[in-house]
Write a structure and sequence with these properties.
heterodimer, A: about 240 residues, Gyrase A, domain 2, Cyclophilin, 2 domains, 4-stranded antiparallel beta sheet, elongated, B: about 350 residues, alpha+beta, 9-stranded mixed beta sheet, 6-stranded antiparallel beta sheet, 4 helices, about 30% strand, Biotin-dependent carboxyltransferase family protein (chain B), nucleotide-binding (chain B), Cyclophilin-like_dom_sf (chain B)
Chain lengths: ~240, ~350
């Protein structure tokens, strides 16, 4: 049996599975493996599965499925579900980011705030393996953990009306990438030429919850070449 | 293949269906009709499957030209619908002719109106749905609201039989009533007093409300220990309580997760009534159990199903009109002959 969890019916269409309320990589991995297993096993009777940091919602059509019967079935399943049995490898994605010029409109502000040179900001931002705790806020938007404490900076007081797709930003203790153009208040320190969310793609979001992301600094020339398809970028190997 | 030509579109007219499920783990909102019940009924009245794509009008409708003979049904908000300048009824099958023009005006009652067209609107499916998601710029017509000049292709199908919903099944917000919700199961005991306050308060729907969510304004509810928490999944009808103590109810274009504490979830069967309340409307809430929520939903669905499966099959044979040219005294007239049901209005 897994770490202590609660399974509760939230409404006639939502079942909620909750772990302890903490941000923790191994707990979060368990969340995603459980979500995947539920999606596979209960595929016929559910509409959607939404995993987050420490919880999973299972969504049903209340006219088709009784959420209380499903609750019993999921509970029974999780009692026997041994997540160690599932062979899972953690995907690691290398995301190219240009931290220069127009692609980094808030770099000067952040480097002043953090009291370090832009080079040092880039060094610290490209150093960690960021775990993807969940995808939310916007289609394909990754909630990443593990930002260097020296790079923490509050959101902008006046959010921008439009942030370009691919923008890499910092908000408080979080870092993330805007997969689509959107309004937003994040401090923008770079941009990736990779299209992270594409409704026409077989798998619409490049990044999945449970992955690990690493940022790789590229020049403006490389940004241009990758964006125009003149240079190939392999997301999975450096 | 027939189509609808958009002569004029209201402020926020979009193509919607029952929503885009299966991609919320990738942060893709469900979208779809705000009043899924009204969309479903509109589809059934023209012989479509429940989830065919319809037009959703928000507060104002617009003007639409039909290039083909077809059948439509209008449900939800009353927008004083007219065909060729004559008022037409809602909640029944309407037979339109090639060249007809349908207009929808300002909502006299309700917010969201639906127009289903026999066969459905044939825009490409994106991630399994034709629903428009404007922030994501996908679905519907190029991921945006309709504009004058747009052409909406229709899926070819046979003319449906004539149906008219009895008033008893029409869920239009005529009378003020309470909206039921299921209190959140998270820390239910500790939160009981907030659930009590939520039921005591008189709320008004704030003008800052849209397809993403409705803001409520009333006496602020202050929560002990702050209002933020680790982001959790949310659903249609989730009631969030941000730091200012004024609840927000999440709706069709909601994000998939939220970091505000939650008071509960509005019953699916009360969502239709709730979303159709205009800004400024007074709302009161009442707690109820999940079993009761499901029972109420099923009872209504059973009544609907009984109506649609038992309606006398007054099939309008060859409902497409026959047109004749008649010349009398050197003037040529067009005469249109179409079989009518005994209770069908002539416009």
């Amino acid at each position: 049996m897994m770490k202590k969890i609660e399974i509760m019916t939230e409404s006639e269409s939502m079942l909620l599975i909750r772990w302890q309320s903490v941000i923790d990589v191994s707990l979060n991995q368990q969340v995603h493996h459980t979500a995947q297993a539920i999606r596979t096993v209960f595929n016929e009777s559910i509409r959607d599965v939404i995993p987050a940091y420490h919880s999973i919602a299972v969504i049903v059509d209340p006219l088709e499925t009784s959420v209380s019967s499903l609750c019993d079935a999921v509970e029974a399943f999780l009692l026997t579900f041994d997540e160690v049995m599932i062979q899972h490898t953690i995907r690691k994605l290398y995301i190219p980011v240009c931290y220069e010029g127009d692609y980094a409109p808030d770099m000067d502000e952040l480097s002043q705030y953090a009291q370090m040179m832009p080079d040092e900001v880039v060094k610290r931002h490209t150093a960690p393996d960021y775990p993807v705790y969940m995808i939310g806020f916007l289609p394909g938007f990754p909630y990443l953990g593990g930002l260097d404490e020296k790079l923490h900076m509050p959101r902008k007081e006046r959010p921008r009306k439009a942030i370009a797709a691919g923008s890499v930003g910092i908000a408080g203790g979080q870092t993330g990438i805007y997969p689509l153009q959107s309004p937003g208040g994040w401090q923008l320190i770079g941009r990736t030429p990779i299209k992270l969310f594409d409704v026409a793609a077989l798998s619409p979001s490049c990044i999945h919850a449970g992955d690990v992301v690493r940022f790789v600094a590229i020049s403006e020339q490389d940004y241009d070449a990758i964006e125009k398809g003149k240079k190939r970028w392999d997301l999975y190997t450096l | 293949m027939g189509s609808i030509h958009v002569v004029n579109a209201g402020g926020m007219v979009t193509v919607q269906d029952m929503g885009r499920y299966g991609y919320q783990s990738l942060g893709v909102p469900v979208s779809g009709a705000m009043d899924t019940n009204a969309l479903k009924i509109a589809n059934r009245l023209v012989g479509n499957d429940d989830g065919e794509a319809c037009l959703e009008f928000v507060m104002t409708g617009g003007q639409y030209h039909f290039s083909t003979d077809t059948a439509v049904a209008l449900t939800g908000a009353d927008m004083d619908f007219k065909v060729n300048d004559r008022t037409v009824p809602m909640y029944e099958t309407l037979y339109l002719h090639q060249g007809d023009e349908l207009t929808a005006n300002y909502a006299k009652m309700g917010v969201y109106a639906y127009m289903a067209v026999s066969g459905g609107i044939d825009v490409p499916k994106v991630l399994g749905s034709r629903s428009t998601f404007i922030r994501g710029r996908f679905g519907g017509v190029e991921g945006r609201a309709l504009r004058p000049g747009d052409q909406l292709p229709l899926i070819d199908t046979a003319m449906p039989k004539y149906l008219k919903m009895p008033n008893s099944l029409v869920k239009i917000p005529y009378e003020e009533r309470t909206v039921h919700f299921t209190p959140s199961s998270v820390d239910r005991e500790q939160c009981a007093s907030y659930h009590q306050l939520f039921q005591k308060n008189d709320y008004r729907i704030d003008a800052m409300s849209d397809r993403m969510g409705y803001r409520l304004s009333g006496d602020a509810i202050q929560m002990m220990g702050g209002n933020d928490m680790l982001s959790v999944p949310v659903g249609a009808g989730t009631i969030q309580l941000p730091g200012n103590g004024q609840p927000i109810v999440l709706l069709a274009d909601r994000q998939t997760t939220g970091g505000y504490r939650q008071l509960g979830q509005i019953w699916t069967s009360d969502m239709s009534y709730f979303v159709q309340q205009q800004a400024g409307s007074r709302i009161r809430f009442c707690a109820g159990a999940i079993s009761a929520a499901r029972a109420q939903l099923k009872a209504y669905e059973d009544a609907l199903t009984a109506f649609f499966s038992n309606s006398p099959s007054k099939k309008v044979k060859n409902a497409a009109p026959k047109r004749y040219r008649i010349t009398i005294a050197n003037k040529t007239y067009q005469v249109v002959v179409q079989p009518l049901n005994s209770d069908e209005s002539i416009f």
